[in-house]
Amino acid sequence: xxxxxxxxxxxxxxxxxxxxxxxxxxxxxxxxxxxxxxxxxxxxxxxxxxxxxxxxxxxxxxxxxxxxxxxxxxxxxxxxxxxxxxxxxxxxxxxxxxxxxxxxxxxxxxxxxxxxxxxxxxxxxxxxxxxxxxxxxxxxxxxxxxxxxxxxxxxxxxxxxxxxxxxxxxxxxxxxxxxxxxxxxxxxxxxxxxxxxxxxxxxxxx
Length: 206
Description:
It is a single chain. By secondary structure, this protein is an alpha+beta fold. It has helices at residues 66-70, 97-112, 117-120, 139-143, 158-163, 194-197, and strands spanning 54-57, 63-65, 74-75, 79-80, 88-95, 126-132, 150-153, 171-175, 181-185. Strands 2-1-7-6-5-8-9 form a seven-stranded mixed beta sheet. A two-stranded antiparallel sheet has the order 3-4. It is globular and about 40 Å long.
């Protein structure tokens, strides 16, 4: 068993259009942050910098940092290096998939629908990463269904704990292109992200 790790601009495509540059204000009550309603799905909050943590690659079992997978690196004073890929990152915390299967299936149905934000906006604007608190040979084998973007394992639950995600419920964490948390919601609440994203993005034409 592996030891647990210690807790610690859009693409150039013409279809990718941000309405305006993101302001510097990172306060939780900023329009850049979506206020959560109801019971929280994680202990992290909108307006915080997205924490880093150690995950494991599928197949090789190689340790990899979350920020490296997202190509977001912070240096002091706080700013992003040139490695930032300038995409909105959607972290799908799957928890224990055998316990969150119903919610994961609901998310898959929504994401694949023509009215979802994943369909309405250019896929070049987003990068998806599924984080599951298991370890398996393949993503679909472990998740019991098709993955959302890339997948990394969190077998010792370190990253779930850093983000404060319940293993029986899972969560979605939306990171802005600058790596700060924009929103946190349940796996079955992805529709709640649409009113937020429409403030900053324009649907692709055609």
